[in-house]
Amino acid sequence: MAEKILHREKMVQRHGFSVLFVHWAVALSTIALIFSGFGQMPMYKRYRIADLPGLGWSADYSVTIVIHYLAAVLFLLAVAYHIVFHLVRKDFDILPRRGDFRQSLAVIRAMIFGGEEPPSDKYVAEQRLAYAFVGSMIILISVTGILKVIKNLPSVSFSGTFVIWVNDIHTFASILLIFGIAAHLAAFLFKANRPLIRGMFTGRVDLEYARRRHSLWYKRLLAGEERKTPPADLAAESAAGELLRKGDDCRCPGS
Q1: CA nearest 107: which of 134, 136, 133, 128?
Q2: Is the pLDDT reported for residue 245 higher than 90?
Q3: Spatial separation of the C-alpha atoms in residues 103 and 132, rounded to whole Å
Q4: Is 119:138 a contact under the CB 8 Å cutoff?
Q5: 103: which of 125, 140, 149, 184 fits an S-S bond (Cβ 3.0–4.6 Å)?
Q6: Residues 77-96, buried b or exposed e (16+ Cβ, 10 A)?
Q7: Which sign, positive or negative, has the C-alpha torsion 16, 18, 21, 27?
Q8: What tens digit of pLDDT does each residue of 171-206 get?
């Protein structure tokens, strides 16, 4: 579904099904990969996690390796689909831009100490930087994970040094990804980011939030509406939205 302003619902369609599918497919498969990956070290028997009710299987390598491979398939499919989808659509709004680091500091300072944030596009600068970091770790994990599978083929022989490097990079990138996920979740401790939680499930965000925090994106959506919609229809739609807004403002608490 294309991005658009839903005037009557006072919402903005931020993401369609494809983005939501990739987000949750990567999120769920990553959780399974992390859990099963640590299980192969092994850790769960040593630290008695396998003794917890219902987790006896977590110390069984033959089980965790199957979970790891199945989760890896979903993970790689979602990543490949994400790359192809955005390349075909030429949708690169999430990629970092010049000045993002400086603008990200300004956004964080405003969230912590108060004040006005700089105007943002569809994604805030810190979100674009976070995407670059997490995306880099995902690529490293994917490439090294594939190499770890290839080395198990009977016809393939890698040097011991190469295998050690592949294993270490895979593990190190996984740890960094965990930190990235933790930072991603910690961002919702700030009130300014909480309206985005709805968008993770429905693809929609509040209209007023989009107009206030993502003003550059909101103006671009309005400009797109003006190009596609006849002036009379656009005026009628805007008037209907204004009447709804005034109705809400005038509604008494007890009504």
Answers
A1: 128
A2: no
A3: 15
A4: no
A5: 125
A6: ebbeebeeebeeeeeeebeb
A7: negative
A8: 999 999 999 999 999 999 998 899 999 999 999 999
